[in-house]
Design brief:
Layout: H1 2-35, E1 43-48, E2 56-62, E3 65-71, E4 82-88, E5 94-99, E6 111-116, E7 120-123, E8 126-130, H2 134-147
Amino acid sequence: MRITSAVRRTRAKMTVSIAALAAGSLILTACSGSSDGASKLDGTYYIKDVNRTSNLGQLVVKGNNVSHHEYNCDGVYEKPGVTSTGEFNKDQSQIIWTVAGDDSRNKRTGSESISTSETSISISGSAYVRDNSDAGKALLDGYKTKCGT
């Protein structure tokens, strides 16, 4: 009987240990999945009068990669007039611009500080609103009206 009792205790301890390892693994998996953090920011964001111009600014976030585009109302251009690309730093407190494009009007160089919310990303104090938010829809509607599209 002592052997049976000892075997039961050993099995019980193993079961508890396995359960603890499984729980720990789930926690680590959840943490590692969210360590990127940028995925919650994925999407398209807009700002009116970007860089103090009448242009529409667009920020596209995919993971840690960021692209910035500027559009005007000419209607002649199918692609943005100014484009930059960059990436978030490790703690997502800055965007480091890696490609400034070839337009001399480009203001996106070096690195810029950012702050984020569920519906916006602010770059150096200028708020870009998510396209599917109420503010984003209103901004895009206003821009379409302004441009006559």
